[in-house]
Amino acid sequence: MNDENKKFDVVAIGDTTQDVFLQMSDAGLQCDIDGKNCRLCFDYAEKIAVDKKTDIPAVGNAANHAIGVARLGHTASIYTIVGDDTQGHLASDVFTENKVDTSYLTFDTKRGTNFSAVINFQAERTIFVYHEPRDYALPALAPTSWIYLTSASGEGVATLHDQILTYLEKQPTVKVAFNPGTYQIKLGLAKLTPLLTKTHLLFVNREEAQRILGLKENDVTILIAAFHQLGIKTMVVTDGPAGAYASDGKTIWHLTVFPAPVVERTGCGDAFGSGFLSALIAGKDIPTAMLWGNANSTSVVQYIGAREGLLTPVALEQMIKKYSTVTPTVFTG
Question: Which CATH class is domain 3-26+51-330?
Fold first, then answer.
């Protein structure tokens, strides 16, 4: 594809990492009396046996989303920075293999590729994350229908947001899907508001919604309404094993998870997001988009890592058909 002929459905923007999964059984959980607020415990100052190690390059919110969209038949590119190292070049190869355009992938010659160690215990994951500081410089993008903005690093986040706002002033027809990462949420609502008001589609989990809004309130209807008041057109709030909620500002739908086996949950939120957005790109309505997201995330949690289970269109249809009794319902609180 020549540069002048490029046109994308989505350009994903955010960091890419190398995940190393450590499957553990020599550990324990310490939870509050109600079974919540659990802590993963190991013996201090001991060597802990690892049952299995799995290395997975080219992951992270932006990478997972770009690959997820591409596998569902849409055109995707990614603006991301990786180290000029083995892991970074391997990430570039993975994107190419998955038909994600790498025109905007940048190799950082001073800093390495981001790294995460993922402890997998009893089908849940605990992630130790190391992000290198990055100097973001949003390139001139080819025409795209959407940008998908997600997790970026440290002090560079605010600069990246300013660059995106400048881009949107020049490209007002481009829609924004936003899934804020840890550093973005730490900016606080006041600093996020200029970008949130430009956001067409927001993905957050329930706890992230509370942190962004600065609310202790956990009623999903109140949280969703607060985001709509900021100007966001479509809200998606995921709630772990309890399923997901989506709203167009008039109606809230709820969808329970498909009753499938779970190996580990890394990347299930990204899979839901890429399935949901892919459905919107295909002209589907919100309840259908929820089914696409649910099918994609259901598949991902049956594998180790965030990429292996991402679906193709045929496999997605088969998954939805398999769990055809599970459909979105109107949520009234």
Answer: alpha beta
